[in-house]
Amino acid sequence: MSDNVLNQLRNKRNRPTVEPRQDALVSKVQSQTEKQNSPQEPSTVTEPANPTAAPADTIAELQAELEKYPETRRHSAIVLEKDLDQELTRFCKERGITVEVFLEAAWAIASADNTLVEKITTEAKHRYDQRKRVGQIKRLITMLRNSSK
Length: 149
Known about the structure:
By secondary structure, the protein is an all-alpha fold. The protein contains six helices and no strands. The protein has helices at about 1-10, 30-35, 55-65, 80-95, 100-110, 115-145. The N and C termini lie far apart (about 65 Å).
């Protein structure tokens, strides 16, 4: 069905056409010879499988399919330790997933095990305290630099 929709969108596009350019440096005979010798590329646009399907029907089908999946919501940017970010990004890239989807899956699995959730929460609190301290130190450095000017 997605090929059908894609083909419909391709067929609807109205691109402006430009007259073929007459290249003064290439003779017409030479350019005609090149055209005859070059292999013709097959057209990538195919006719829709069901040309009588109305766009409203297609939209309704797509919306019905969309309702089968969980709704998503954009979350704030994630700040990670530099080395951890590089390692996690590489890990996800090798497996063809995003960091966000990995975190979703990790939460889905971990939340089923209370002991694991407690271990993760303890580690998270420790990291949170470290981040707060780093923020305090950076703020103090900035204040001291600004006061010495």
